[in-house]
Specification:
Elements lengths: L2 H9 L7 H5 L3 H26 L8
Amino acid sequence: MDKDKRQRLEKSGWRIGTVEDFLELSPVEKEIVEIRLALSQEKMKKTADLETLKGKKKVW
């Protein structure tokens, strides 16, 4: 977010923060979310790779 937009939002009463602040996540919970996100992205990548192979059936 650019500096001007941030200042306008804060002046209008909006609070700017992080997802961790909003969800009140502990450091351990934040790490769990990051790990699950990475696993999900890797699974989607592998699924897309499998779908591009010709003549192969979906394995999962």
